[in-house]
Design a protein that fits this description.
By secondary structure, the protein is mostly helical. The protein has three helices and no strands. The protein is rod-shaped, with a radius of gyration of 29 Å.
């Protein structure tokens, strides 16, 4: 089973040797990176769903943009005469 690339990047950040950094600071750095990556993904997902909702609303409203006549072309020609 393939590993998640997000998880891999966090593991690499934790395993990086940092000169003079205690594990608490390294963990904080990893969590900050995780929040940034997760936040960007959430924003993209939110904007995608918003666009999808707008497209669905436009599709449903498109039938109401122009009035539809129930009269056929033949019927309207007879009324004009």
């Amino acid at each position: 089973m393939d590993r998640d690339p997000f998880e891999e990047s966090l593991r690499e950040l934790l395993q990086e040797p940092s000169v003079g950094q205690p594990s608490e600071q390294a963990l904080e750095r990893v969590l900050r990176a995780a929040n940034r990556q997760t936040g960007a993904g959430a924003l993209l997902l939110l904007s995608g769903r918003a666009l999808e909702s707008i497209m669905m609303a436009l599709e449903g409203a498109s039938a109401h943009w122009r009035p539809v006549s129930r009269l056929t072309g033949k019927t309207t020609d007879e009324h004009k005469e």
